[in-house]
Amino acid sequence: MKNFIYILSAAALFSFSACKKDYLDTMPTDSYASDQVFTTVDNAWNAINGIHRSLYKQYDNQDQGGQGSMMIINDMLGEDLVMTAAGNSWYNPTYKWTMHRNSSASLLKYSYLFYYKIISNANMIINNIDGAVGSESDRKNIKGQAYAYRAWAMWNLVQYFAIRYDGSGGNTQLGVPVLTTNVTEGQPRATVEEVYKQMNMDADSAIADLTVASAPNNKSHINVNTAKGIKARIALTQQHWADAAKYAAEAKAGYTLMTNASYQAGFNDYTNSEWMWGSHQISEQTSYFYSFFAFMSCNFNSTNIRTNPKAINSTLYNQISATDVRKKMWSVDGSGVTVPSGGLLKPYMNKKFLAASSSSSIGDVPIMRAAEMYLIEAEADARMGQDAAAADVLYTLAVNRDPGYVKSTSTGDALLKEILFQRRIELWGEGFRFFDLKRMNAALDRTGANHSTTLTSGLMTMPAGDKQWQFLIPQDEINANKAVIQNDL
Fold this sequence. Notes:
Blueprint: H1 34-37, H2 41-54, H3 67-76, E1 81-82, H4 92-95, H5 106-126, H6 136-161, H7 192-212, H8 224-238, H9 241-252, H10 260-263, E2 275-279, H11 293-296, H12 303-307, E3 311-312, H13 314-317, E4 330-331, E5 349-350, E6 365-369, H14 370-383, H15 387-401, H16 412-426, H17 433-439, E7 444-445, E8 461-462, H18 475-480
Antiparallel strand pairs: 1-3, 2-6, 4-5, 7-8
Helix pairs in contact: 2-5, 2-6, 5-6, 6-7, 6-8, 7-8, 8-9, 9-14, 14-15, 14-16, 15-16
């Protein structure tokens, strides 16, 4: 039997057959044998394109639609995204903080599997591409993107399944298995420090390869700026402020912040001037009710959108300046929102995200924007005590969104709070809040806003450092891999 490049690496994880139609779906072929893929760079492009495609395809359940589903999970676990009703039950256990603490939950299993399969496919590329016949530029491009994907996947995994990185040192707590080759025997969990060491090496390798490669002409692909953006995210999580500021500044170079008109266009088009990385979806690749826009748009005619439109935390919304274009991304009373036929109007409901139409959930999914890089640079500068530099960077972004914004004269904690507020409203719904709370060791606090205790099952707060900030390792992995230790139950 041939080895197919979607073979899973982490200890047989969930026992996928090598001959089963699975992960690397690209048009029109579903999978590629490794001895065919890596003979030429032209064939090898199919492998990297397959990873891109995996970010927005549909898997087992409607809450398993690629990276878009993981973005929804991250914000459902925070305080800024508000469920307005139970809808048709998708993501309700996540909102209640029960899904990720149930080792048998299908969405928990998906969260683990999704990123490890990306790592598995990246490993096949990294370990085989050097022998492919073709241009050196193509080999560097393909390999650099694979390194970036592996770093990015590990960055996601370790934040879900491990205790947060402590910038003061140590970090001997259990992380996740580090896999740089695809093996069938069970691998133990590396320490958090070891995981970050490997992902930094991979990010550096990605930057080196992509610096000399020809730039891809499609934002579904990863270029050197995107790789530097991944490096900036890693550094921010590690509290390595100087590196975070440096790589964020380099990552955003050459990107233009969008106009206020573009800001209101639906966050669904990766040709937007400030998008750095996004999943571009065409009509032949629709994921129907699995799509990010089937849950987060205001206009697609799905049961979840009609009955459970997503809203912003009312306390957060009320702090946004009246002259800020972002104030227009939600409606206090539901007026002015394009809803599908029969759709409910709810207070503070979202109109930031628009699907292609009420009958099509197609839309490009934003994975990285230049605005995030401005916010990383500003936060890192502020945490280093470089208040003037932080205020300058913040001003460039904030005045673009709000012509009435005045450059901050705040310093210290006051300036940092202003930057973090801008981060919350700028990146709402794009999958950052759980990671932000966890990296800052901040408590969850949904009180005093429009969260319903009925819909949250009373889960309105979560103390910083509680064991519930860690996802449990899926039971299928525990059963298959005797080298893996479960998190505290």
